[in-house]
Amino acid sequence: MIVQITTSTFGKAGTKPIEFLKSKNIDFRLNPFGRKLSEEEAIDVIKGAEGLIAGTEPLTENVLNQLPDLKVISRCGTGMNNVDLEAAKKHGIKVFNTPTIHVDGVAELALTGTLASLRKLIKNDKTVRTGEWSKSMGSSLYDKNVGIIGFGKVGQKFCKLIKPFTSNIFYYDPFIEPSDINSSIADPTSLKEIFDISDVISLHIPYSEENHHLIDKKLFAHAKANLTLVNTSRGGLVNEEDLYDFLNEYNDAAAYLDVFEKEPYHGKLSELENVTMSPHMGTSTIETREEMELEAAENLVEAFGL
């Protein structure tokens, strides 16, 4: 059996996942490009493999139609929006993901992005490097109103990390019953109300067609002029054109973005000083990556009954 690994960081954070595959005598191939694959590259690279430990490359119907040997996709990560699940089902391909290990890493990055944006850390860093040595006044997180959109595992972990700074925490999640959440943790509210009252808003929801451009100019019209928006969840949730217009109009507003609708990102948000960006690195900690890759390998091995 041949297993193709397309996630580009596999084995770089730690040796556990590779040692595990070797212990099962599995013949595996690593990503030859060391980056996210295009559709055409994915077809060429995966061809002939029965098992796939997948990254974020597009596993579309077109791709899966041309991979007749593929029997198992083990996604290294929680998001499944890059996998055509209907096409996989049609071809009898089993699909797995790693739904919990990412939680701490993503929530910690959201907190990092929040604090860096509020304190204008990147802008101040630049003045030191250029010799300007001027200070841009930031804001404290203390006692701010924080809105969390999506109150699943990552949203709740982010809430716990924020709690020492403020108790003014609100969440919007239509799939959670308020009675299931301790009212002392956070208060449920509507999506519009989140934008009406929040100084900081952090997104923690999966991408779906229903959520496409969920955050748009209609909601930004309700936002405070100094809102800090944080997205470590998925690209496509925020209308980037509308976000650009909002941030361009209100210089005291800010955004931290780890995810984008099209990646790598080359859009005009990068022109704005009140935007801080990173290259989809929510799970990029040594601890998170090693354990996530190990779980993906274990899921694949279990699926084949080895």
Question: Could you characterize what this model shows?
Answer:
- The protein is of the alpha/beta class and 306 residues long.
- 33% of the residues lie in helices and 14% in strands.
- The protein has 11 helices and 12 strands.
- A 7-stranded parallel β-sheet has the order 8-7-6-9-10-11-12, sandwiched between helices. A 5-stranded parallel β-sheet has the order 2-1-3-4-5.
- Helix 10 links the parallel strand 10 and strand 11.
- Helix 1 (16-23) packs parallel to helix 11 and helix 5 (103-118) packs across helix 7.
- The longest helix is centred in the C-terminal third of the chain and has 18 residues, at 286-303.
- The radius of gyration is 21 Å and the shape is globular.
- The N and C termini lie close together (11 Å).
- The model has no long low-confidence stretch (mean pLDDT 96).
What secondary-structure arrangement, pairings included, does this model have?
Elements: E1 2-5, H1 16-23, E2 27-29, H2 39-46, E3 51-54, H3 61-65, E4 72-75, H4 85-90, E5 94-96, H5 103-118, H6 121-129, E6 146-149, H7 153-162, E7 169-172, E8 187-188, H8 191-197, E9 200-203, H9 217-220, E10 228-231, H10 240-249, E11 254-257, E12 275-277, H11 286-303
Helix pairs in contact: 1-11, 5-7
Give a brief rundown of this model.
With about 300 residues, the protein is an alpha/beta fold. The chain has eleven helices and twelve strands. Helix 1 runs parallel beside helix 11 (about 285-305) and helix 5 packs across helix 7 (about 155-160).
